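User: Please run a holo structure prediction.
Assistant: Happy to. Please share the sequence and the ligand.
User: Here you go; the ligand is phosphoenolpyruvate.
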Amino acid sequence: MLIPLIAGNWKMNTTIHQGVDMVIKLRELLRGVDSVEAVLAPPFTSIHHLSHIVADSPIKLCGQNLHWEKSGAYTGEISAEMLVSAGCLYVIIGHSERREYFKETDEMVNKKVMAALRAGLRPIVCVGETLDEKERGKTVSKVKSQVKKALTGLTGGALKDITIAYEPIWAIGTGRNATPQEAEEVHNTLRELLFELYDTDSIKNTRIIYGGSVKPDNIDSLMAQPNIDGALVGGASLKAEDFARIVKFQSE
Ligand code: PEP
């Protein structure tokens, strides 16, 4: 039985003080929650500080990005080893904002996945189609190709540490989420793809989570779908009460 994963992506929001206030609230709100993995991806500058605050709580920390090299002359970049030393267990890779604004390619995403796994981090790999691709009926081919390329070279043993986040780009930050049925269809297709690529045992712990305008009022119906194993939450993760309600979703 897969434990659902609910991850909050704070993006480029919160100073260290704001992050601390938020996590102190969240720690209280999530006291005793053990049936869901709650993960937060704050800005790099806050991670180490927050690692002390989440130490006795169920909250795990996550980087929003990483570079595939361990160290070197890559001004402004952060390695997997640095994220681990700051207190991260997870890392988001290939978010659509990174792909769009920072020109990340599928090949870069694959290198980042490899580097994360080598360092002991669990990658949350984001895939998703644009509105134009959706309207042209290209959703399935786009996300399948992104997943295949992201996982190139990975053997089955690595799949237990991988989470795939299906995030339709037209639903991110727009208030327009995929319906639970639309999301379920894509998740089911991605699950079938994993079955084609790996054996059943290797992928039994691989989560496929949904992201795109997840809110307290739509999480329950999303999580009621058999192939939705959690959520990646942007805007609503910046309010402790909303994020706590999402983590404590009610399965129908
Ligand atoms: C995201 O950035 O991954 C995201 C899903 O954002 P939002 O929840 O705000 O749509």
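The chain has one domain: 5-247.
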